[in-house]
Design brief:
Distance between the termini: 64 Å
Helix content: 10-25%
Radius of gyration: 29 Å
Low-confidence stretches: none
Number of helices: 14
Number of strands: 47
Structural class: alpha+beta
């Protein structure tokens, strides 16, 4: 065929969008995946002109297929190496908001590893169906040498003003971005075998693309969810080239499209910055942040264990000579990442899918816990505590974060039965007795495991204690002495900042007083400001589905009136105010789903509010027994803070968002009043700041008409995968299938906390404190032993309070340590990093763990971290 003079090139890219589980289970979809591979192999083997097929930017499809047909591995390697089949750069296509930044990096690390093993990585930031996009995606992709992205949802089409634009991350990193047409990743799907009919489809798609022309490269995606390759594409392309005299059409791939777009793009591309969450032109389905909240809680727990315990403690133990269990860590990550596609982690699939997810979460958690336990046991076994007396034990308190931590310790210590006790003394590293709280003591048993014998059960005398551990060393541990006391005389009272009465609790930071309706007033002692009617539970009807909250036409808002107050766990180290009662809720919705029923059901609700000695955090643990359907339960904190913006923890970022939502009349989906956070939400003005922390509760709303009240979603109960009669959207987001288990009946427990402070979240160090709240501490007890480690130790310390940490792990390919830190603030910062071990060369690397340049180092590392920047340090330990 003679070369065409026109500069336009249209690439027909055969692909399948592979939702691994959704309206069918993984095993049910797997058979379809097998047929997709078999069909593709048959086409390729019989038609050498069939040149390209894209497997949705994923590599997990290779594992899923080869699990059944391992003999096809070499054939896959051949086709991937030759570029006929394109895979990667991802392991799975993730939801971006509901997984951590480090999970996204692990996803790309594993995707690259598998794709390289099979011959070639597709270096395209392909995210065709994520429900919006996080602010730092440009920096994350560039960290893997991917300078582009192809995406669909989350941004107004009039803002991009073209098929291509420049996406700038908050640190200034840029991506060349291709914005898919409004129809999405399927503008050339299911092309008819009647070539003239196919021409009409292609012509309409090309005309649509030309309306937003910014380059001479046109992308025609031949596929959609779970579709197989169409064998007639090569012959159809020949026909189409005859019908389009001014456009060169070819069967191609995303790399070819992107390369030609860069080559022919206009010089005046629009530049856009920040996260993309708009639902103006395409649904972003942000109601998934609260669907099946138990999944979000399980995910946060697993991520925290892997990122902040299993990996860093594996590094610390490796520095002491232990084997680093890289394969087992990756095994845990894989089970977790299999839950991270949007239809999975978002909670918008059939019930059986989410049942199977919980097993994966359990496995990931068990793996992470066992790795952590092994590491802590190993390190503890090397600590020298030969100074202990016969009636003493050492309690080792571990802190996995590379900055000092002051935190409450709630733990059980087990003495041998020959040591009699009815209380203990707790002594610090200077052998000074410190304030503690005795919570319980008695006789019990503990199980001891042996590699050479069956488990044995040992009789013990236990004691449960609580105390505030001050300045636990950064990324290290601190040892306390627990001395058994067998003395029935009353011990002297400790001086403490903890006090309480019949309806109040108090420490040096706050006084919390219960109101008659079960809400609490919180006085911040530093400012004498009182925050009234806090921890108020408010329930609304929900006629929505797993994707979207939608109040019924005739709604009833119900606020709790809890009347039972009591004081628990009172002592010098901590005190808890328990507020309990019954919330009367409508049983569900009327048959037409337009109003809440008149039948009411008693639902028990209990909140435990805890203050710790000398700790500037109020902890809340709320238990709710959900006995009703079709509703949303939130907890509210009125702040009376005068501001128009809210700050929410994101991914390597703290995002500033306007509190007021835009007028969304005429939008595909109404603008959501709720939004996402990864761990905290913060408001502040010139007088005060209020930060709400949580563990696995990602949905919040700031309500301006209620004095900037922060509402945190605890539970959302619905019974449908997708319906279309909603206030926020009028089209289905998926098949209309019943999901009775999405009603989340039964008992649920929610953990959240508040810190009231002066100044901004930056000045108050909220980013670090939120991470500390999620991570918590772990302890080990030791009998008298010798060892080569001191009883207090820090492996890594970062001295700038504005710099946060996301990862301490071993390098994927070398015996080096990877430390990833980031600056979530808007100002450039200088930090010093001190190492508690001998080091060789230190390098600045990228997210793919490739070294970029050698860093100067003299006793400690000085590092400049620009605003919003992620830095990866690669350390060669001298061991």
């Amino acid at each position: 065929m003679p070369e065409k003079k026109s500069a336009y090139k249209a690439f027909i890219v055969p692909h399948t969008h592979w939702d691994r589980e959704w309206y069918l289970t993984f095993q049910q979809f797997k058979l379809r995946l097998i047929r997709t591979f078999e069909n593709l192999f048959d086409i390729i083997e019989n038609d050498e002109e069939f040149t390209d097929f894209n497997f949705d930017g994923q590599t997990i499809v290779l594992e899923d297929y080869l699990e059944v047909y391992p003999d096809k591995k070499n054939l896959l390697k051949k086709y991937i190496s030759e570029g006929i089949i394109q895979v990667g750069p991802w392991y799975i296509l993730p939801d971006e908001f509901l997984v951590s930044g480090e999970s996204t990096i692990r996803n790309l690390l594993m995707g690259h590893k598998i794709a390289k093993e099979f011959g070639k990585v597709m270096k395209i930031g392909y995210l065709p169906d994520s429900f919006g996009h996080i602010s730092q995606m440009p920096q994350i992709l560039q960290g893997f040498n991917i300078d582009n992205i192809i995406f669909w949802r989350g941004i107004d089409y009039n803002k991009t003003q073209g098929n291509e634009f420049i996406w700038e991350g908050p640190d200034g990193t840029e991506l060349f971005a291709a914005h898919l047409p409004q129809v999405g990743y399927c503008n050339a799907r299911s092309l008819p075998e009647d070539y003239e009919e196919a021409y009409q489809v292609i012509k309409a798609s090309i005309d649509d693309l030309l309306k937003r022309e910014t380059s001479k490269s046109l992308l025609l995606l031949n596929g959609v969810d779970h579709l197989e390759a169409q064998p007639h594409i090569p012959e159809l392309v020949k026909y189409l080239n005859k019908r389009f005299p001014d456009i060169e059409l070819s069967q191609g791939n995303l790399t070819q499209f992107m390369d030609y777009a860069k080559e022919t793009v206009t010089s005046k591309l629009k530049k856009l910055r920040g996260e993309f969450r708009s639902s103006k032109d395409m649904m972003t389905l942000n109601g998934v942040y609260s669907a099946r909240m138990y999944i979000k809680q399980a995910n946060e727990k697993c991520q925290t264990l892997l990122e902040n315990w299993a990996e860093p403690t594996s590094v610390f133990a490796w520095l002491q000579g232990k084997k680093y269990r890289s394969n087992l860590i990756w095994n845990g990550w894989k089970w977790l990442m299999k839950n991270h596609p949007h239809d999975s982690i978002c909670g918008c699939s059939i019930d059986q899918v989410h049942k199977e997810m919980m097993v994966r979460f359990d496995w990931a958690e068990q793996i992470a816990e066992e790795i952590t336990n092994e590491n802590l046991d190993y390190i503890s076994s090397k600590i020298n505590v030969e100074y202990l007396a016969d009636d003493e034990l050492a309690l080792v308190v571990f802190n996995p974060l590379p900055y000092k931590m002051t935190e409450n310790i709630n733990t059980r210590v087990n003495f041998p039965t020959n040591v009699k006790l009815n209380r203990v003394k707790v002594m610090d590293e200077n052998n000074q007795e410190i304030c503690y709280q005795l919570k319980d003591y008695g006789k019990g048993q503990k199980m001891e495991l042996s590699p050479f014998d069956t488990p044995t059960f040992i009789d013990i005398n236990y004691v449960d204690i609580s105390f505030t551990a001050e300045d636990i060393p950064a990324a290290g541990y601190k040892t306390y002495i627990i001395k058994a006391v067998d003395d029935l005389t009353m011990p002297p009272e400790y001086k403490s900042d903890i006090s309480y009465g019949h309806n109040y609790i108090e420490n040096c930071f706050y006084r919390i007083e219960a109101n008659a309706d079960g809400t609490v007033n919180i006085m911040d002692k530093s400012s004498n400001k009182v925050y009234r009617n806090c921890n108020k539970f408010v329930d609304s009807g929900d006629a929505g589905d797993e994707y979207t909250f939608s109040p019924p036409l005739k709604n009833r808002i119900i606020s709790t009136n809890l009347s039972s107050f009591s004081i628990e766990s009172s002592g010098p180290a901590e005190v808890t105010l328990k507020i309990a009662g019954i919330i009367l809720l409508p049983e569900g919705l009327s048959q037409d789903r337009k109003s809440r029923l008149d039948n009411y059901v008693d639902c028990p609700l209990e909140t435990k509010i805890t203050l710790y000695s000398n700790i500037q955090r109020i902890d809340f643990e709320t238990t709710f027994n959900n006995k009703v359907k079709d509703h949303r339960l939130r907890v509210e904190f009125p702040t009376n803070i005068d501001t128009d913006v809210v700050y929410a923890e994101g991914h390597f970022d703290v995002v500033e968002r306007p509190i007021q939502v835009p007028d969304s009349e005429g939008w595909v989906e109404k603008a959501y009043k709720t939004a996402h956070n990864s761990g905290f939400v913060s408001l502040y003005d010139k007088n005060s700041g209020f930060s709400l922390l949580n563990r696995g509760l990602p949905e919040y709303e700031v309500i301006p008409e209620k004095n900037n009240t922060i509402a945190l979603t605890l539970l959302r109960s619905v019974g449908w995968l997708s319906v279309s009669d909603l206030e926020y959207r009028t089209i289905e987001a998926g098949p209309c299938l019943p999901t009775p288990e999405a009603q989340c009946l039964g008992e649920h427990t929610f953990s959240y906390a508040i810190i009231i402070h002066q100044g901004s979240w930056i000045e108050a160090g909220i980013s670090r404190k939120a991470k500390q709240y999620r991570v918590q501490v772990k302890t080990r007890e030791l009998k008298k032993q010798t060892g080569n480690l001191p009883d207090n130790y820090s492996y890594i310390q970062i001295n700038n309070d504005k710099i946060d940490i996301s990862s301490i792990k071993k390098h994927e390919l070398e015996d080096k340590i990877v430390i990833r830190l980031y600056n979530p603030t808007d100002s450039d910062e200088l930090t010093k990093i001190k190492f508690g071990f001998n080091t060789g060369d230190i390098f600045l690397g990228n997210l793919a763990e490739e070294t970029n340049k050698k860093l100067e180092y003299d006793k400690q590392l000085e590092l400049s971290v620009p605003a919003k920047k992620i830095k990866t340090i690669i350390v060669n330990p001298d061991i």
